[in-house]
Amino acid sequence: MTNGTDWIALAVFIAFFALVTILGFVAAGWKRGESMAHLDEWGLGGRQFGTWITWFLVGGDFYTAYTVIAVPALVYAVGAYGFFALPYTIIVYPFIFAVMPKLWTVAQAGGYVTAADVVHGRYGSRALELAVALTGLVAVMPYIALQLVGMQVVLRGLGLTGELPLILAFLVLAIYTYSSGLRAPALIAFVKDIMIYIVVIVAVVIIPMKLGGYGAVFAAADKAFQAKGGATGLTLVPGQMMPFATLALGSALAGFMYPHTLTGVFASGSADVLRKNAILLPAYTILLGLIALLGYMGIAAGVKVASATDMVPTLFRTVFPSWFAGFSFAAIAIGALVPAAVMSIGAANLFTRNVWKAYVNPAVTPAGEAAVAKIASMVVKLGALLCIIVLPTQFAIDLQLLGGMWILQTFPAIVFGLYTNWFGATALLLGWIVGIVGGTWIVVLDGLRPVHTIVLGADHYTIYVGLLALAANIVVAGVASAVLPRHVRRGPEVA
Questions:
Q1: 459-462-466-469 Cα dihedral, nearest 10 degrees
Q2: What is the DSSP string of 417-467?
Q3: Nearest-angstrom CA–CA distance, 66 and 143
Q4: For the residues 378-402, what does the mean pLDDT come to?
Q5: Alpha carbons 42 and 32: distance in angstroms, whole number
Q6: What confidence score (pLDDT) does residue 439 get?
Q7: If DSSP codes are grouped into helix, strand and coil, which group holds residue 410?
Q8: Domain-embedded: residue 448
Q9: Alpha helices by DSSP H, 37-124
Q10: Residue 108 CA to chain centroid, in angstroms?
Q11: Does 148 have pLDDT greater than 70?
């Protein structure tokens, strides 16, 4: 990482960050209903977002600042294996097209705010509802923390050290989210995505030109990986193909089970909006592929960093003039604010509806729900901030490896009920327990690695732990549903 503060870059960064801060507060009156003292208004933006707003919002919280930092960092470190995020984002869109409109229809008909609301309405089980809610709350925390890690890396790239700059950025995020709710990240997402597209397009054109073209970039990366040895390179080795494929599939199934992605779904104005977004969102996959190439460019540019996480900011500060480096850093930092805000709102909705209202104060008014959600969103962000300040960064990354596996265990309870009456609430809860406990046990035994190797005779199969746990989850739920009595279906039927 380049030492010293680049004052021009810092000035540009502050200017754009200030613009976004103003937009965050202006958003309180944007498309506003009669009152913000209602969870539908504060937590879902009035359930009125059209195709373009939803596209920016869902893309904004699905493709995060840590994606801009972590994906090229992984490619920089290990090569082709880091591209598993590309097929994952291709697989997820047919899933969105097929499933999310059905889920939206049920949520709209029942007035549901969270996936746990849908589960309770479908099965009438408070225990299964709580399981889904707690899983979402736990799984989203490392993601919020990792957005702050992305911001921390950017601030370090500007030459700002210590925790004070991160704390100030956190306060800005917390205050405008408290004031404006989901409208703030929805409005800011417009600015964020335009800035990210500008940065990436400039980077993939200008940086290779300075390095002698893409041929030279790939040649330099190939030479570096050959010198490093091991399972690194421009192509996958045979042993990487199974984990690559299962990570992509498991991540795709888990991606839209998170509370922040489902918040964007429930905030949409219609099921048709979601179908259109499933068609339009692949544009972000193109963007992601271009971002991943920054890893190879970092190698070709001779970037040397103590941590691969610092690679992108170091590359930008090395190659770009100060003013554009500042613009790039602002785009990445703003890209952290949008998903962090939506994540904290999604978590706050879960806590308010499925913990507070269900167990603490069932008679809470709509205004009371909104008030509790605002406070909960502040507490969630504070917890993520403390994780970054108090614990080593590596700890947050290790937790993220568990996040996908945990949230994947809510898939049967959320999705299966949209299509079949076969599974019962008790059976799904038993499957959830097996998936959560078994998956966590395997990951811990393997040293928090996301993949596990199964030995069958002379053959070895390395598979994403989340899929192994999900398979056990579904088998247990299926067998238990065949043996145990099933409750009559409740809640709105799916059209």
A1: 20
A2: GGT-S---HHHHHHHHHHHHHHHHHHHHHTTS-SEEEEEETTEEEEEEHHH
A3: 9
A4: 68
A5: 9
A6: 95
A7: coil
A8: no
A9: 39-44, 51-62, 65-78, 85-110, 115-123
A10: 24
A11: yes
Can you give the pTM of this predicted structure? 0.89
Q: Taking the CA atoms of the chain, what radius of gyration do you get in angstroms?
A: 22
Question: Tokens for 451?
Answer: 């993949």
In-domain check, residue 470: no
pLDDT category at 448 given cuts 50, 70, 90 is confident
Tens digits of per-residue pLDDT, 334-380?
888 778 888 888 999 999 999 999 999 998 888 888 889 888 888 88
What is d(CA 494, CA 476) in angstroms, rounded to the nearest whole number? 25
DSSP string of 217-278, one letter each residue: HHHHHHHHHHHH-SS-BSS--HHHHHHHHHHHHHHHHHHTTSHHHHHHHHTBS-HHHHHHHH
Token pair belonging to 437: 């406990």
**DSSP SS3 for 1:** coil
- More confident call, 469 vs 382: 469
| Helix 183-211 with 51-62: angle, nearest 10 deg | 60
CATH of the domain at 115: 1.20.1730.10
Tell me the HSE value of 104 on the side-chain side, using a 13 A CA sphere. 26
Beta bridge partners of 141: none
247 inside domain? yes
Report percent pLDDT > 90 for the chain.
40
Q: Which residue's entry shows tokens 């002379």?
A: 458
Least confident span in 32-46, 57-71, 208-222, 255-269: 32-46
Is residue 143 assigned to a domain? yes
Name every residue whose Cβ is closer than 8 Å to that of residue 269 and which is 6 or more positions away in sequence: 47, 48, 49, 50, 54
Residue 386 buriedness (CB in 10 A; 0-12 / 13-18 / 19+): exposed
Number of separate domains in the chain? 1
For residue 94, give both structure tokens.
Answer: 């047919």
Spatial separation of the C-alpha atoms in residues 452 and 449, rounded to whole Å: 7
C-alpha distances (whole Å) from 405 to each of 255, 310, 393 are 11, 26, 20
Domain range enclosing 122:
7-408
Q: Are 383 and 139 in contact (CB under 8 A)?
A: no
Tokens of 387: 């994780």
